[in-house]
Amino acid sequence: MKREAVLDFYIANGVLYDTEEDHIFQSIQSQSIYEVIRVMDKVPLYVEDHLERMRKSAELLDYRIHKSDQEIMGEMAALIEANKFPNMNIKWLCSGFDKEEQLFLQYFVESHYPERQVYENGIHTIFFHSERENPNAKVMNLDLRKRINEKMSLEGAFEAILINQDGYITEGSRSNIFFVKGDQVYTAPPGEVLLGVTRTRIMEVCKKLDIKVIEQHIHETEISQMEGAFMTGTSVNVLPIRSTGDHVYASVHHSITERIAQGYEEDMETYRKSCGIC
Q1: Residue 15, SS3?
Q2: Alpha-carbon distance 154 to 248, whole Å?
Q3: Of 92, 148, 156, 175, whose CB count within 10 A is highest?
Q4: CB 178 within 8 A of CB 232
Q5: How many Cα neighbours within 13 Å face the side chain of 4?
Q6: Are 219 and 168 in contact (CB under 8 A)?
Q7: pLDDT at position 132, please?
Q8: 137 to each of 11, 19, 33, 91, 171, how far by Cα in Å?
Q9: Which residues contact 254 (CB under 8 A, 6 or more apart)?
Q10: Which residues of the chain register pLDDT less than 70?
Q11: What GO terms fall under cellular component here (predicted)?
Q12: Which letter does DSSP use for residue 139 in this model?
């Protein structure tokens, strides 16, 4: 595996390494599960949710992560401090489930947060026919990621929306996807998609705002009926989708999209102010 770690240090099984020491990354060959956590002002956002989801990913594959939550949190605090408290994303990666000693890595990764102009204009997306073998488990699939990136680059897209074998929309290649019609929001059912941490918080925000979310299948031929769409994720928050293929939405200025985006920003700020590194 190619080294992903940036900045000065990463942690492997509790030991702090210089990022130039990439031999550990090169040794990763077995199946790996991962999480990506955003750090803002020294606070890892929604870290409890990420811990829970990573453990669920392992369980779905009949694995168990040996490290305790306290160990993971302690190592993350050390990593953030060693790298001088950057506002970037941290990646957890657990591998070696078939070995006597697991490998648990924590490291900062290249983090790209869309500029305000991107939110104001919305993004272009494409359809990509593929589905995850185990939708609820966050597993590394480098080959699929490469193929999706190549198609997005060719068509000038920011994200690819995955379509299953029956023609139904599931999720984004690195996000969850929501559609807006009237005063309601639609998204794929839980069993069909990776239940992203941001997705979960968006559902809670919608509940607080009294916005109805309908979890049902949307066929690729039905997008012409949708007024708006947005993607959600660790680095993008709530990002309006301007178009999918040839279909153009009115996402950017749709009142529902605007209310959800504002509600999520407030949710992040509330969490940041109330939480510190444990």
Answers
A1: strand
A2: 19
A3: 175
A4: yes
A5: 19
A6: yes
A7: 80
A8: 23, 28, 8, 16, 13
A9: 180, 227, 228, 240
A10: 276-278
A11: cytosol
A12: B
The sign of the torsion formed by the CA atoms of 214, 215, 216, 222 equals positive
Instruction: State the Cα torsion 188-147-231-236 to the nearest 10°.
Output: 140
Contacts of 217 (CB under 8 A, 6+ apart): 168, 169, 188, 189, 192
CA-wise closest residue to 253 among 234, 230, 233, 222: 230
- 184 three-class SS: strand
Contact (Cβ atoms closer than 8 angstroms) between residue 160 and residue 148 = yes
CA 82 – CA 192 distance, rounded (Å) = 39
Tell me the C-alpha distance between 227 and 189, whole Å.
20
CA distance 1 to 241: 32
Q: Taking a C-beta distance cutoff of 8 angstroms, is the pair 225, 201 a contact?
A: no
What are the Cα distances from residue 162, in Å, to 69, 128, 188, 247? 32, 5, 11, 16
| CATH architecture designation of domain 9-109 | 2-Layer Sandwich (3.30)
Kindly list the domain boundaries of the chain, sorted by start residue: 9-109, 116-271
Of 213, 212, 206, 172, which Cα lies nearest the Cα of 192?
172
Query: Class of 116-271 per CATH?
Result: alpha beta
Rounded Cα distance, 50 and 47, in Å: 5
Long-range contacts of 247-250 (CB under 8 A, 24+ apart): 247/223, 249/122
